[in-house]
């Protein structure tokens, strides 16, 4: 289940190097968005619980994401690319984006684990449409630029670049 995969990636972020963490996120976030678009449109439901995560846990998670991302946390974007009268960039936070997606997917997982399947689907679909979809797409764009820069700079994400040539050779065997 993609929601579980995303939440596990966030939960175990400290066990992986930043480059691998960000690369996995870059692959997973668009897949989550695609899956959310395929969920059935549900007409009603009770938004299943952001309240299920304590304030202390959510604050700790957010701060930990900020620490993990370091200088890669803040990025600039145009809030509404189709509003031609206001093209002023705004500042986004990758930690905030990842956190908001996590909270909403986690809430749906809680419903799912409690066998409240309709509520889980509604939580994921409604949350995607009104909130976490914006965060996921903003994060994807920021992660894409970090990925792109990693091929142009000698040290991506502040860490040693994986040996791409060895990976390509191994993939062809």
Structure description:
By secondary structure, the protein is mainly α. The chain has one domain (2-171): Up-down Bundle (Four Helix Bundle (Hemerythrin (Met), subunit A)), CATH 1.20.120.1550. Helices cover 64% and strands 6% of the residues. The protein has 6 helices and 2 strands; from the N terminus they run αααββααα. The chain has helices spanning 2-11, 18-38, 55-69, 94-113, 117-152, 164-171, and strands at residues 74-78, 89-93. Strands 1-2 form a two-stranded antiparallel ribbon. Helix 1 packs antiparallel against helix 2, helix 1 crosses helix 4 (94-113) and helix 3 packs across helix 4 (94-113). The longest helix is centred in the last third of the chain and has 36 residues, at 117-152. It is globular. It starts with a helix and ends with a helix. The model is unreliable at 46-51 and 158-173 (pLDDT under 50).
């Amino acid at each position: 289940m993609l929601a579980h995969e995303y939440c596990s990636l966030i939960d175990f972020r400290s066990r992986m190097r930043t480059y691998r963490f960000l690369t996995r996120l870059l692959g997973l976030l668009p897949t989550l968005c695609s899956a959310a678009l395929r969920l059935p449109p549900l007409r009603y439901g009770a938004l299943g619980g952001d309240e299920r995560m304590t304030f202390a846990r959510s604050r700790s998670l957010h701060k930990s994401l900020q620490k993990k991302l370091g200088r890669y946390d803040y990025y600039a974007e145009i809030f509404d690319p189709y509003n031609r009268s206001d093209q002023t960039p705004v500042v986004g936070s990758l930690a905030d984006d990842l956190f908001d997606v996590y909270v909403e997917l986690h809430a749906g997982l809680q419903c799912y684990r409690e066998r409240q399947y309709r509520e889980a689907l509604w939580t994921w679909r409604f949350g995607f449409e009104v909130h976490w979809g914006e965060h996921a797409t903003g994060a994807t764009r920021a992660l894409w630029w970090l990925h792109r820069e990693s091929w142009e700079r000698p040290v991506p994400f502040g860490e040693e670049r994986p040996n791409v040539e060895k990976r390509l050779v191994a993939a062809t065997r």
